[in-house]
Amino acid sequence: MKIAVAKGDGIGPEIMEAVLNIFKANQIDLDYSFVDMGKWVFDKGFSNGMTPEAQATIEELGILFKGPMETPKGKGVKSVNVTARKTWNTYANKRVFQTLHGVDTVFSKAGIPIDITIVRENIEDTYGGIEHMLTHDVALSRRFITRPGSMQVIRYAFEMARKKGARRITCGHKANIMKLTDGLFLDCFYEVAKEYTDLKADDKIVDDLAMQLVVRPDQFDVVVMTNLQGDIISDLCAGLVGGLGFAPSANIGDHISIFEAVHGTAPDIAGKNIANPTALLLSGLAMLRHLGFRENAATIENALLYTLEQGVHTGDFGDRSKPSVNTTQFADAIIANFGKQPAQGAKPTLANEPETLAVCRLEQNAMMVSTEEGEEKIVGVDFFIESSEQPEAIAKRCLLHGGTKFKLLNISNRGTQVWPTGSKYTNLVNQYNLRFEGLADESLTQQDIIGLYVTLSADFKICSLELLNMWGGKKAYSLAQGQ
Ligand code: NAI
Q1: 275-317: per-residue pLDDT in tens?
Q2: In a domain, 71, yes or no
Q3: Which protein residues are within 6 Å of ligand 1, measured from CB?
Q4: Which numbered atom of ligand 1 lies nearest the CA of 11?
Q5: Residue 139 domain flag
Q6: Residue 449 domain boundaries
Q7: Whether residue 421 sits in one domain with residue 295
Q8: Which residue has the higher pLDDT, 178 or 402?
């Protein structure tokens, strides 16, 4: 069996070498095809951070084991990590956080065990990175939450929870505020839950979830979340079990899967051979199990747990009164402990059942469409315009433009209604939303909207527009605050 390996940037090559040495010492029957990805590939002029050969190899082999890769902050190139996850539709990001003996935390000292799996949607949300400056003062990010994308990851989470023997699965969300986006994700969660009556399915608003995770982490089992919220909450969970050095992650797709640590390139300690390789090793063990190398995975994991119990530690954790070891020495200690059983309970050594990776060749992109229901009708339009005038002045000019088809319903600024009613205490920015409604009962046409666009554009700079749809008698848009 052959997999693709990308060593990554910063501490990536050091921790990858340590992990592959452990695999080699355990005589795992795996071949590696090393691929070119990361910051240095950007620097060579490949704008997506990987060479075409790397992409072809990964698509052929179906498994990528990767070290962390650097993303320049702010303007410029996109994260190669996110590009890889999105390009290959690795829609479920599974992150496991467990108490480890030898890794002291406030919870381990208090005897509170932690075993939480976060399943984070991995493709959508603000990670689409679809952003525009609407005016010099106003940036807009488009946050896509889709029904097929949500169903895909939520189904994975339920299936995984059942296999894990979980008692509870929780959806973390902010549907009280983001009623359409997070509301859609939450609806999908309860739709899928109906098929898994053996699991206790419930939901928590993300801020409450964050607080409860810190106060009583042992009450949670599997938590499924949208992308950004899941990213933040999973780093919080990493903190509960001893930090980023112990947080593995698997990006699971139907055709290609990527295994990597949660942490980044740790530029502050790169090149010193002092990084903790545990998170990458745990990610590698998840990969081995995914590939059917169950016996090897258990032997290595038991050796790792035994090593941690012995108090062997790198500089980022453990008993500071005892000297720390470097990355290579840590890996060697694990190798020396093959065959040992940890006191905290050994992982069962099931026989290997290596999978034949049935990488399926795709001829075209898969289109995921859910069934549409009910009558569709365009009932209005939101025009986002640039203006530094007061709302009343804008309304006065707009009222001339509605013609016989439209009336100006309201004006909002940053989502808060400022006309026809509002408050003088609402601060304004130079970007308004003018909401026009159709006057007649029948659906508006796109030509009607273009007609209004043309007349309005004589008076205002239009930054963008959105149609106001009614689907099956329900509004497919949100109301302004105070509307
Ligand atoms: P980071 O995770 O690299 O570092 C945060 C802190 O944790 C640092 O103090 C670092 O020394 C420490 N740390 C991280 N991993 C460690 C390990 N294995 N052993 C010991 N200490 C460790 O996060 P940061 O500094 O925000 O990001 C650095 C770069 O990594 C950025 O370019 C970022 O975009 C990239 N990154 C890449 C990821 C990936 O490849 N999946 C994930 C997160 C960040």
Answers
A1: 999 999 999 999 999 999 999 999 999 999 999 999 999 999 8
A2: yes
A3: 11, 68-71, 81, 244-245, 260, 263-269, 275-276, 279, 316
A4: 18
A5: yes
A6: 376-475
A7: no
A8: 178
